[in-house]
Records
---
Amino acid sequence: MTPPDAEKVVIVGAGPAGIRAAELLVKAGIKPVVIDEGLKGGGQIYRRPPQGFTRPPKQLYGSEASKAVALHTAFDRMVAAGEIDYHPQSSVLATAGNLLQALTPAGRKDFTYDRLILATGAMDRLAPIPGWQAPGVYSLGATQIALKAQGVALGEKIVLAGSGPLLTLVATQLLKAGADIAAVLDTSSLRDQMAGLPGMLARPGLVLRGLLMRAKLGRLYHAGVKLDRVENDERGPLAMHWRDARARAQRTACDMVGLGWHLRAETQLAGLAGCTFDYDQSWSQWLPRTDRMGRAAERLYLAGDGLRILGADGAEVAGRLAATACLADMGLPIPDATRDLRRLDRLERFARGMARAFPWPRDAVRAVPNETVVCRCEGVTAGQLRESVSFGGAEANRVKSLARVGMGRCQGRFCQIAGAELIADKAGIEVCDAGRLREQAPVRPLPISSWVRDA
Amino acid sequence: MTADLQPSRQAGRIVRLAEKGRPQVRFRLDGVDCQALSGDTVLTAVLVSAPAVRQSEFGPEKRAGFCLMGACQDCWLWSEDGGRLRACSTLIADGMQLRTAPPEGWQ
């Protein structure tokens, strides 16, 4: 096991990236600390239901079942063997120096580290549409989690809308489970999708699988739509109003809406830990800067969708690479990374093709009516945001101070990207010049009682 | 599932599709006895019987959760003793006493 003078490595996140990173460190004789918010290791896409659920992996993860099982098995084995110091249901809320402050089921706990691997994953990337603040409107990721981890649908008649691989996947999974889907509305046009195809052919098998799923959706699926609004009463959605590719107005009755435009990297801890960020045009968001292995700064490594949105397969590769870099920097023997680096190139070509095929709906966001809620947390509208730009300056942190977009409990996770788009549009500047919201600890709200310590 | 054009408007919004045979759990929501299944999150359990978990402080609408992965903070509600919990990342337990609004005298 770990010799007493060994450096202490902490991994945040036990999804595909964190698990593979931990595995490599364990092989090198290190016992890493693994801190994860989940009930069980696996992350979001390979999330496991709580105790007492019995659906087999094939039913939960479909074609990815063997990968999910391999990851879960590898992780559970390390936990059982005491090879990792595992802290489930624990959120790292702040970091400074070599300290992580976390909220665990037993209360506040501090962790020190010599080297830190952040594998914090991603969440849905959301664009505002009128009415999306109503109860019964969820993210696509939420729609999938409800099915996978709880065996439920979040409504009786479902409209899924947005763009990206999750749209088709969630629709297919819900249909298979017996849910009633009224429409699958893709804001990406067939022309966009064709433009992304050459890059996506870096993984022809996945493209084929996607097309087969799409075919199964049949007439439920519509490409190139514009989403006008969610019609709600006080209980929630009554219908989605949209226009089809030929600009004809449509109304689809529903009582639940799932929205999402691909993913947004979860980078709050990376920011607090001192990462530099670059605006990535193809992903339409700020992403941390690292070398190919995932080195972000001295003793700081990133892996998985919190670094580059390559999905679960890419996260496994990136997790191994980050751990390899960590081992190399500790002067320990390292495995040959050539194959993983080659894989990473291919996965990145695919991902950029996909980003092009299912783009962020830039023009639609810029055109939202003034009364549209942009910040779901505090109900701040596009009109209030635009007004603050005109008298406060076109910068995300200024707009946050003045209009409170990004000030709410989600800390900008669901409004930051759309907010920057609206700032850029109003001020006539590039989105990357609208700035990036500074991270603030704690990165999740917490009960004060859990944090205050007796003197 | 109904195939009607207009969905029926029941009390809750959850439709159970699988694993319905889990043991029952009893809890109270706003003083009313409710039932859920062991392994349900508090969010699932509440939304079986109610359309929302709380009232938005900043708008006229109610809220019923949004991301289900602990990121959006939309689904915080109250327990009867005034404590707060995030419904999507907490499992329901027998005897829980939950509220969709702050308890009396809670500021």
---
Amino acid sequence: MTTTVLPRVTYINVKHGVASWLLTKDHKRIGIMYMIVVSFAFLLGGLFAAGVRIELTTPQGDFVSSDTYNRLFTMHGIFMVFFVLVPVVPAILGNFVMPLMIGAKDVAFPKLNLMSWYVFVIGFCFTLYALVSGGVDTGWTFYTPYSSNASNTNVLPVGIGIFITGFSSILTGLNFMVTIHRMRAPGLTWFRLPLFVWAIYATSLVMILATPVIAITVGMMALERALGFGIFDPRLGGDPVLFQHLFWFYSHPAVYIMILPPMGIISEVIACFSRKNVFGYSFVAFSSLAIAIFGFLVWAHHLFVAGISPYSAMVFSFLSFAVAIPSAVKVFNWTATLYQGAIWWKAPMMWVFGFMGLFLIGGLTGIFLASLGLDIHLHDTYFVVAHFHYIMVGGAIMGFFAGLHFWWPKMTGRMFSDSMATLAALLVFVGFNLTFFPQFILGYLGMPRRYHAYSEEFQVLNVLSSAGASILGVGYALIASYLLYSLFRGAPAGANPWLATGLEWTTQSPPLPENFAVQPVVNEGAYEYSKREIKVA
Amino acid sequence: MPNGVGAHADAHGHGHAHHPALQHHFETLEQQHEASTLGMWVFLVTEVMFFGGLLMAYLLYRVWYPEAWSEGSLELDILLGGFNTVVLIGSSLTMALAVRSAQTGMHKATVRWLILTIILGLTFLVVKAFEYEHKWALNHIPGPNFQFEGPHARQVEIFLSLYFGLTGLHALHMVVGVSILGVITWMAHKKRFSPEWSTPVELSGLYWHFVDIVWIFLFPLLYLVDRAGQGGG
């Protein structure tokens, strides 16, 4: 990377001005626009989490009132789930690199892609409105009758916001699915596809089949709240547990919307930085589909204490165990990929190592919670909070950063400081474990979630957790600072700084507006690293 | 690749002519057609899931409260509902004929069948509006002002909530469908379609048939619960 210069015409400088971005149909620009909105949502969600952690440093509720505390954790959940975790990898990295990876000029429906972004922003604005008009205190799960009758906060705008945002997700999934079916370069057969594309495909399947259900469920809740319709209302004989079933029919598969794309990223990065073919390619590819399909059959494990029949609970418990199998296939295959690989200690790989450790703990504690007896003890305690943060932050967000660091040179044409990025990965890993590992113990000891005061005996572990959260915050701030620095001062990256396989690395960085100067043709599998010379800098 | 009317020299300099409807990121009209058709089918799958949430609630409460379902269903006007069913099935026929005309390049027939489809769609909506108005007059709209005489009044309110939810969502789809057909009719009038490219007509046809099929399910589920008078459940 000595004498590389930035290319003359790129998707960034081909047109100038705000309007050229707001009216663009280029999947790369749309990916960047998602990144801006999602980063803002991540900042907001992080600030609410900071409020929660400050309150929990002392056993008494002294920093905020209990009403404010309810709003803090609710808004944290809503922003992080619907506006960060669901779109973070598909809408940002999926939009940017997936069409490049399959050698296409764009997604199948570029106008629809832009429309999805606008739909997302409109939903985001409704939610922001709910925030500035006082916030919502129902928890991000909106269980009826809290949400339909009991809460006197501004539930309706958030409901509308999530209803609308759902369509952004549906349309993105539709667009990606058609793109992967119909837009692949000549010679790019299904079993030559990069595993990230397989993961995006499986994710699209979940988005298409699950998201409409949350839309209609939130719609029914809104009808009940706004017009007094009685679908979940116990006073009429309606069943609030039906709401929980419908809600988790989306929201459990949504976990796989969040984790499948980062899993795809891990496969890409681990192959590149081990200089090896991914071990058991087809197993990893099909495990994505298996997770997507099994993911639809486990939702009622959120309802073990909601009064469902013990027989259905047993079936759902068993099926929840079954999801562990394809997830474990992935982890074993990544480990086998590392074995005898020429490991290249670069920043993206650090995030991958972080992901593997944290996802493993998150996945295994999921088995605890899927066990019927143990779940009764652990339900609605901090153990659950720790478990899903290990999956969502330790898994999805670490995976996103692995992908962001891997593709950053492609997206911006510039390199970032590798030592700073490694330091950030270390800070986030340490800070994350310090924040959430104590919460496993707290939950096991019986500290319930969603209370703003707690027994004195839990204070030490809570202080540790809050201290970890501040390290985590510093880690994220560090990422933002060196990436912004790289945007202006980073050294030009050249087309392929990681000497990686994959079509996205065959075009210039940042890519041309139409992606490729000539239509690429594929005649080999996705990870032919054995055919490449290793130039470890 | 030989093209019909309106072919022009390719801006990218590949040396072959492009159809004006071919977007820059597709190689051929065929690829574009296949992508659009697959996209529409996937969209219809999401629609099935969308209605599915409401139908799940319908199923649960019908099993729980068969008597209320029977009482509620008898409140609906089977004649108007039946008339609307015939109207919608008829509109599917005219829609299919419009697609056929577009595929065979018969511009005037395409416009004629599309206009007839729109008229039938609007007829359905007008009849539906009269049905709603009747419910309004009887205070059968769920909510604070709901009134109903009968042993299962509260559960009938759930039935009517689902009735308005399902038929309201369906009517919304009809409004969207009629609007789309308006645009398609205008495009057909401008002779934009030809045997080699009539994708928008075909896709609106798929959508229209889907909305029709939803009604084919809704009519018996809502209007015909207990017409034989044999007691529910």
